[in-house]
Amino acid sequence: MDQVPNSCMVYTAEAPAGVSESVKQALAPFTVQWSEHPEHGGGGKQAGWPGCLVSGADWPKVFQALRDGAGFELLIDHTAVDYPARTPERFTVLGLAANIETQERLMVRTRVAEGGSVPTLTHLWKSADWSERETYDMFGIAFEGHPELTRIYMPQDFDGWPLRRDFPMQGHNRFRD
């Protein structure tokens, strides 16, 4: 088992009860560590969602297997989380995919070191274009093969990544608009 510092997330070799057989079969060729999103307080929409942790090299292959082999045709969300104390893989990049027909959802995670990159998902879903640019703009995580990895919120000459936990709360640089 692997537990992230300051987190409730625990990974195991066994898929949680909520994972369908089609997902297990689609992901069988990959090394997958399974998790179940912990419930927070009164539950909520994401309480109990199953998830998995995969290698960065397998990231696009896992999503393709979910789309083509398990009917996960919607990428709901795609973002990152910063764990500055975790080394060497400081960031967790995550994507939430859904099977519209069965309403099954799966949160797929991979880890990446500062200065590292993750393969793009834009060839699978057009929605990944904006999400990956947003993640790049806010965290500084690059996506290999992205068609136009540029800032979308911050000015092009802005220095820094505002959603990193070590970013100064009052900013640190002036920029031109």
Q: Could you tell me the mean pLDDT?
A: 88
Helix content: 10-25%
In terms of DSSP E residues, the strand content is 25-35%
Identify the CATH architecture of one domain: 2-Layer Sandwich
Number of helical stretches of at least 4 residues: 3
SS-based class: alpha/beta
| CATH class designation of one domain | Alpha Beta
The SSE order reads EEHEEHEEEEHE
Low-confidence runs (pLDDT<50, min 5 residues)?
1-6
Q: Work out the radius of gyration.
A: 17 Å
Strand order of the largest sheet: 3-4-7-6-5
Largest β sheet strand count, sense and barrel closure? 5 strands, mixed
Report the span from N to C terminus.
Answer: 48 Å
* CATH H-level superfamily title of one domain: NADH:ubiquinone oxidoreductase Nqo5 subunit
Instruction: Please provide the count of β strands.
Output: 9
What overall form do the CA principal axes indicate? globular
CATH topology category name of one domain: Beta Polymerase, domain 2
At a glance:
The chain is an alpha/beta fold. The protein has helices at 21-27, 59-70, 127-139, and strands at 2-3, 10-11, 33-36, 50-53, 74-82, 91-99, 104-112, 117-119, 142-144. The chain has three helices and nine strands.
